[in-house]
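dumping this here before i forget
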Amino acid sequence: MSVRATARVTAVRDRRGATSLPVLESEGPLALRRTRAVSPGSARVTVVGAMSAPLGGDRLAIEVRADPGARLAVDSAAATLALPGPGPGTGPARYEVRLSAGEGAELSWLPEQLISAHGSELITRTTAELAPTARLVLREEQILGRHGESPGTLLSRLTVRRAGRPLLDQQVAYGPGAPGGWDGPAVLGGHRAVGQLLVVEPSFDDRSPEGRLLGPTAVLTRLAGPAVLVTAVAADARELRAVLDRAHDELTAAAAD
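structure:
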């Protein structure tokens, strides 16, 4: 039997200037826990998987809202493993992430990797709505197959709007149900780990980092707005995380200058 569940987080800035969480709602396999924040005045929420998900036919969603002035980071305790459904005809699983950040808010979406296991079918959709002065750090990492196995079918779309206008809208597809060429030299080139880091920073309006290669399989691209996108492929999850972590440190330093 498929599962339908939506978890919700709302962060607000209180009168002391700290961030509180008036809404922290878990549902189904999506258990949310408040954990220790990295910096004073901010809040951190960790997604803890309460059961195996997503399976074929599941409909899961997480809604995260950072109200004006709030500072919120959301991560996860472990990787998300997409698995085949319990029987034939269950159809693909769907996993939606809906993010929003108000004026002066800072929102980080930093989950662990998504693993597309053999035989699975998963459609993911991440959307973000940002106010003009909001800051966003978003990381996505996708591992195509567990060790020694071929991947499942994965379709992933990321849409970001800032001040009501499109900032980024892209879609990727991998695995046996994807269009031909996904594993060719023009796309993955045999790599099995792919990821991206999006940083939306209002100060980049005046001093955005220059687009350039970040090693042999990663690139930093300036977007048409105060944002940069780092895209990388790698042989495995560890190598991919190292590339994205270095990029994150560099971009955090650039925003602070």
